[in-house]
Specification:
- The chain is an alpha+beta fold and 119 residues long.
- It has one domain: 4-Layer Sandwich (S-adenosylmethionine decarboxylase), CATH 3.60.90.10.
- The chain has 3 helices and 6 strands, in the order βααββββαβ.
- A 6-stranded antiparallel beta sheet has the order 2-3-4-5-1-6, with helices on one face.
- α2 (23-36) packs antiparallel against α3 (94-105).
- The radius of gyration is 14 Å and the shape is globular.
């Protein structure tokens, strides 16, 4: 079967709070992730802190365009949760992506959802 795209969704619970709350760590993470899953970044990552008025939602959001689509993430200040999506028309290794997430954020649990989009 021919696929048009591959979408990995990682719901990470109770990661390292200090790292989840660090724009520098998030930048280093996405730069290494791009390299390790053999993608090519298009420009610098966009990393912004949002929702400071709501402690339940406050945290960093990440968008990194890649030549084959994008990597996005949302990092929760309150509890260390992070939600990372990788979408690409080029296949990539799921376990490699999880290894990089574990290296940077050490979540207690990762729920994996993987979708393929047919051509």
């Amino acid at each position: 079967m021919e696929y048009w795209g591959y979408h990995l969704i990682l719901d990470c619970k109770n990661g390292n709070l200090k790292k989840v709350k660090s724009a520098d760590t998030i930048k280093s993470f996405v730069q290494e992730l791009v390299k390790e899953i053999d993608m090519v970044a298009s420009g610098e990552p966009n990393i912004k802190h949002f929702a400071t008025h709501n402690e339940d939602a406050a945290g960093y959001s990440l968008v990194q365009l890649i030549e084959t689509s994008s990597i996005t993430g949302h990092f929760v200040d309150k509890n260390g949760d992070c939600y990372i999506d990788i979408f690409s028309c080029k296949a990539f290794n799921i376990e490699t992506a999880k290894t990089v997430v574990n290296k940077y954020f050490s979540p207690e649990q990762i729920k994996v959802t993987y979708l393929t989009r047919q051509a």
